[in-house]
Write a structure and sequence with these properties.
Elements (H helix, E strand, L loop, with lengths): L16 E4 L6 E6 L10 E9 L3 H12 L6 E3 L8 E9 L15 E9 L10 E6 L1 E5 L1 H11 L2 H21 L6
Length: 179
Amino acid sequence: MPFDLNFPFAYQPLDVSAVFRQTPDDFFVDEQLGFALSGQGEHLCLHIEKTNQNTVFVAKQLAEWAGIKQMDVGYCGLKDRHAVTRQWFSLYLGKREVDISALQIAGCTVLAVSKHDCKLRRGMHAGNAFCDSAAQLQGLGRCFSTALANGGRAGRAQLFLVSSVLGAAAAICSKWKPC
């Protein structure tokens, strides 16, 4: 039995459309650790910006480069592949040192390096900041006009929704220049 996804609306539907995520630069994720790395310890932490690379692939490449087991590479969460993402990885090296300048992973750039006393684990970070760009935005002016002209409950709800979404997007994206 097919399931109908055409649910009724409480108010007039918003006639707004946009195209999202046409290129990796259209979606940006910045991992927020929420704590300071200790600067000492047996774990080398790398803050990496990656484009069109998924977290597990980069972790495997880091393990191979450092000559360690893949289980000795830590990260706080999986990030989107089709995006520009910044995230931290930890590598358990013990007392060994590695030459960071020799690290070459396609689509990846090391932004910062630090030491820490424990492995980064899934869910250990405070959260992620996102920036999602939209292209070919249509109908937004009409939506504002309708919401303002209506003046009733539906108009205020639509205006609040549109202005909240745009305001939140502007605040988040202002931290990252390409958006």
